């Protein structure tokens, strides 16, 4: 066995591969994340922490997590054992994952990520086509999580289709993007499909902003495909009809619908932020604030909402963090998005960075996207792989760089 392929190296590669394969299963995540962290420590990650912290995204993640810990000082937490806010700390997995990457491990990581991703897609498609069910029940994934991961795949495949030079690869990536988009149109997540479509439009403008004719041609082609998919998706049409029903219920003062429920919790959340705008109500307090407030808020107009759906978050990343930490949290989240983009820009991939951050931002307007179990981890893994790959390319271009 070569000297550079010891049992320690085998265990590190196993931790990386295991993490990429099981990030879709919440229960196994609780094993994979500690294993990844242990592998990072064994690999001397603590000694390299000074180097890793130079990455803009690492700095932003640490700032957000520090702000959340600080928010405990003015919180009445523990709040009945509800710990939804702790999901923000999953972002910290970027540090050991990125630090563990090297040339020898990268193919294993990419292979494991692709196997895991397309295995979930295959099972999700089987469940939709054969069982007529949404999401991926075997992994405990709701239709929201499944739609979100499809959206990530659509955006990346479409980006590659528009940027790679080889015509064969262009065609393959375009087919993949359209196939994933077709599946996403058959999931119930209206907000996420709209986020995907809006992000694709944004991507086209970024790539061809100085070529008006090309923008028109690509967008026109995209609109035709979208129209065909929408027309042939009974699920999508039903969700549009449901929006009209929800609006009719709203006009009657009934908030027990998907749209009405979101409007109600956003209303309560914005009012809560206005009451404590600078530092919020404290980490872990938003849910109890909602439950205590709706009894009397606006004459009790929302007091029946818990019977419709139990509130665990505010279905909006900005309102959610604002309720926890006020302006402090909103600035910390803004810093995270900006530095996520900067991590790509530093390695000369500004368009890809802007596109992914656009998707995260838009998806977070109708749901607490950052609190999803799996999708932020997926995006962090993609970010780590991409910027490591690009960093290696830049080193090869400049062999004297140290």
List the helices and strands and how they pair.
Blueprint: H1 7-22, H2 26-42, H3 49-52, H4 56-71, H5 94-100, H6 106-129, H7 143-163, H8 167-184, H9 190-207, H10 212-231, H11 234-251, H12 258-275, H13 286-293, H14 305-308, H15 317-346, H16 350-363, H17 375-397
Helix pairs in contact: 1-2, 1-6, 2-5, 4-15, 7-8, 7-9, 7-16, 9-10, 9-16, 12-13, 12-15, 15-16
Observed structural traits:
17 helices, 402 residues, mainly alpha, 0% strand
Estimate the global geometry from the Cα principal axes.
globular
The helix count comes to 17
Give the overall pLDDT as a whole number. Answer: 92
What is the chain-wise order of helices and strands? Answer: HHHHHHHHHHHHHHHHH
- Helix percent band: 55-70%
Uncertain residue ranges: none
Largest sheet: none
By helix and strand content, what is the structural category?
A: mainly alpha
Separation of the first and last Cα atoms: 30 Å
Radius of gyration: 22 Å
Number of strands: 0
Strand content: under 5%
Task: Summarize the structure in words.
The chain is mainly α. The protein has helices spanning 7-22, 26-42, 49-52, 56-71, 94-100, 106-129, 143-163, 167-184, 190-207, 212-231, 234-251, 258-275, 286-293, 305-308, 317-346, 350-363, 375-397. It has a domain at 48-101 and 253-402. The radius of gyration is 22 Å and the shape is globular. It starts with 6 loop residues before the first helix and ends in a 5-residue tail after the last helix. The model has no long low-confidence stretch (mean pLDDT 92).
